[in-house]
Design goal:
Blueprint: H1 5-8, E1 12-17, H2 19-31, E2 36-40, E3 46-47, E4 50-51, E5 65-69, H3 72-85, E6 90-92, H4 103-113, E7 118-119, E8 126-128, E9 133-135, E10 148-153, H5 156-163, E11 171-176, H6 185-193, E12 198-205, H7 211-223, E13 227-232, H8 237-247, H9 254-263, E14 267-268, H10 272-285, E15 293-297, H11 300-310, H12 322-332, E16 342-343, H13 352-361, E17 369-373, H14 388-401, E18 405-409, H15 417-425, E19 429-432, H16 434-444, E20 466-468, H17 470-479, E21 487-490, H18 493-499, E22 507-511, E23 523-527, H19 532-537, E24 545-549, E25 556-565, E26 569-576, H20 580-584, E27 587-591, H21 596-605, H22 610-613, H23 623-639, E28 643-653, E29 660-662, E30 665-669
Parallel strand pairs: 1-2, 1-5, 5-6, 6-7, 10-11, 10-12, 12-13, 13-14, 15-16, 15-17, 17-18, 18-19
Antiparallel strand pairs: 3-4, 8-9, 8-11, 20-30, 21-24, 22-23, 22-24, 25-26, 25-28, 26-27, 28-29, 28-30
Helix pairs in contact: 3-4, 6-7, 10-16, 12-13, 13-14
């Protein structure tokens, strides 16, 4: 990876262009940048009040960073000249490259840049709030900070919107990636996270160019104790189309992308508000050690609403220990019902000492985060003087008990930016709004993952696939050690009776040559040997036949699907068998490689997992056999690069110790080697 340090933390900035360049100069001056600013323009005497240089040859030295606010053809020429003189890096603002289909022009830009780091093209640039270096041609809403999070976005507008946040989140950098022609989102994240002043990163991702490199970057961040929270766009067909038209990014399958991020240890957020609120938590506290939460409210309505909304999140609300109950009763009196969440009423409102005592009783080593629900009055119409003791008490209680603390507004606007900023400075995390605040706590409590994992390399999506019929597919599975029903293959109806003579009824007859045999009327069950000829003659669309002994009723059925993803390599999808997975959407996806423990955890995440573990006194299924079969299937597709997809549906599970049986199997292959 190229060294991006001069580009991100420059002491000298060269600016090329007219109106856009003037905005860059203005933003640098406004931020108090104390390095050199060198506008370059052939005809203007000054830009933004700073004297212009007529050409590159007039620069006093090679700049650390350059902003190219000029047309795309001129940008290629200037990038080459800057590279030759040793410039530390450049932002190419111009569009009209690969995102509009002109791959050749984009390659010409990359070639011209050579070893010089290049952001873009089609890139807004970088905001450095730590040093005041603003390679940015527009307004932004950030402020100077000493430390904070880095935002890296594939959308310039999303980045601008995030800069306008009024939630107290300290932002150290905002960086846009543009087309990633040379420097990728992964490169930028790796470089920014290496800055000791950066505490965490928030990513807006449309496409990941190199998942293996991304996984390595995420592991490096985790080793530094820095969390990454990401929004991954492109999970719907409409979103993928938008992403493609915007930056020509390959969005990838939605389930696969979520599985990939999770295995990398990246926390995935669904909405910008969730990401921003969670970033505040990991910036101030790091990942939470657990999910145990207490909440204090000054009304029953707030306490009830908090409890109702929290029920939709994976959070634990521990009972208050007996000694703490005693202290609460002494502080609050007999009229207050003591529970978590706690409605402490307004009896102690304004009494900082009693509020400190009450809040501290809701804290301790039995809590991972203690939350004060509080909404401040409007500053333009009301006074917030009476709210100061509550915040001071929350801070003091956290210090006394050593507990992580947060203030949670029931509404997003309930904690204004001025209060949110003050709280962050005081070690209290402000959370804006019940819904996003509670979700942020849930996200920040997600555990780290084991390091050392990398996905399999991905290949291009196949242009042509051939079906390996069920009989041949099952022969492949059986040769690998997966149990399949006893059966025979026959080419035509006349051959079936003799071929099936050794099988024990009841029998299943399947017509071959179709991936979805049931939909095509090519499956008949519960047959005797005498029924086979007539049943086969009714299957005129079949190219051959498979006769098998019927399997005994299982305890449970699984769907196991493996496929090659053009972005993330190999994916594994697990669900309940038959049509349950499709009808209920009850499927969990993993990106390979996956361990047996990871496969087991995925199975137990299914909503219908109780059917596997012995629901209402029923026999538990042989989960160990299922895991062994799944791992064998993973080995088959890994060892056969021409296998594009394998599906077993159902994989029937007997009671524990009874094994697993692949009752139906499909393999699609390509010409890949």
């Amino acid at each position: 990876m190229r060294d991006l340090s001069r580009l991100f933390r420059p002491r000298s900035i060269a600016v090329f262009g007219g109106w856009w360049a003037e905005n860059v100069v203005a933003q640098c001056l406004k931020s108090g940048f104390d390095g050199d600013i060198w506008p370059v323009h052939p005809t203007r005497a000054e830009i933004g009040g700073v004297a212009c240089l007529p050409g590159l040859d007039d620069l006093p030295a090679a700049p650390d960073a350059a902003f190219l606010g000029i047309n795309r053809n001129a940008a290629i020429e200037v990038a080459g000249q800057l590279s030759a003189m040793g410039c530390g890096g450049a932002v190419c603002f111009a569009s009209g490259f690969a995102e509009t289909g002109d791959e050749a022009l984009q390659q010409a830009l990359v070639t011209a840049a050579g070893e010089m780091p290049l952001l873009g093209p089609n890139c807004y640039g970088v905001l450095n709030y730590l040093d005041g270096a603003m390679l940015w041609p527009d307004q932004h809403g950030g402020r100077a900070v000493d430390r904070g999070v880095a935002i890296i976005s594939q959308s310039s507008n999303i980045a601008i919107n995030i800069s306008m946040q009024a939630r107290g989140l300290p932002i150290a950098y905002i960086a846009c990636v543009g087309n990633q022609a040379q420097t990728s989102l992964t490169d930028m994240a790796r470089s920014l996270l290496a800055d000791d002043r950066v505490t965490a990163a928030g990513l807006y991702i449309e496409g990941i160019i190199d998942p293996v490199d991304f996984a390595g970057m995420a592991e490096e961040a985790a080793a530094m104790g820095k969390s990454i929270i990401a929004i991954k766009a492109g999970k719907t067909a409409a979103s993928q189309t938008a992403a493609s038209s915007h930056t020509a990014a390959l969005a990838g399958d939605g389930a696969a992308s979520s599985a990939f991020l999770a295995r990398c240890g990246v926390i995935e957020a669904a909405a910008p508000e969730d990401m921003l609120e969670a970033l505040k938590l990991v910036h101030a506290l790091g990942r939470l050690p657990g999910r145990r939460v207490t909440a204090m409210c000054c009304s029953g309505g707030e306490a009830g609403l908090a409890a109702d909304l929290a029920a939709g999140h994976d959070l634990d609300w521990p009972a208050i220990p007996a000694p703490n109950l005693k202290r609460l009763a002494e502080t609050l009196g007999p009229l207050v019902a003591l529970a978590n969440p706690l409605d402490y009423h307004t009896f102690i409102w304004g009494d900082e000492q009693k509020m400190t005592d009450a809040f501290a009783a809701m804290m301790g080593d039995w809590v991972d985060l203690s939350v004060l629900v509080i909404d401040f009055p409007r500053a333009d119409r009301c006074s917030d003087e009476a709210w100061h003791p509550a915040v001071a008490a929350m801070k003091r209680a956290g210090e006394i008990t050593g507990t992580h603390v947060a203030c949670l507004g029931s509404l997003a606007e309930g904690i204004p930016d001025s209060w949110a900023t003050r709280m962050m400075d005081d070690g209290i995390v402000p959370l804006n709004g019940f819904a996003h605040g509670l979700r942020a706590i849930e996200l920040a409590a997600m555990p780290d993952v084991a390091g050392g994992w990398r996905p399999h390399a991905a290949g291009p999506a196949p242009t042509d696939r051939q079906l390996i019929d069920e009989a041949a597919a099952k022969a492949i599975l059986a040769s690998a050690g997966i149990t399949v029903p006893a059966g025979i293959r026959a080419d035509g109806p006349a051959d079936i009776a003799a071929a099936a003579a050794g099988l024990t009824p009841p029998l299943a007859l399947k017509g071959l040559g179709h991936a979805h045999k049931s939909d095509a009327g090519l499956v008949r069950l519960g047959l005797d040997a005498d029924d086979l000829l007539a049943a086969a003659e009714d299957m005129s669309a079949a190219t051959g036949f498979l006769v098998e002994e019927m399997a005994p009723p299982p305890v449970a059925e699984l769907l196991v699907g493996l496929r090659r993803d053009p972005v993330y390599g190999l994916t594994l999808s697990l669900g309940m068998g038959g049509t349950a997975a499709e009808l209920l959407g009850d499927v969990v996806t993993l990106v390979l490689p996956a361990t047996g423990d990871e496969i087991r955890a995925a199975l137990l995440q299914l909503r219908l997992a109780p059917l596997l573990t012995g629901y209402r006194g029923r026999d538990a299924a042989d989960i160990d056999a299922a895991i062994n079969a799944v791992q064998t299937l993973c080995g088959i597709i890994t060892a056969n690069p021409d296998f594009d997809e394998i599906e077993v549906n159902p994989l029937m599970l007997a009671p524990a110790g009874g094994g697993a049986l692949a009752v139906d199997a499909v393999i699609w292959k390509t010409d890949a080697e």
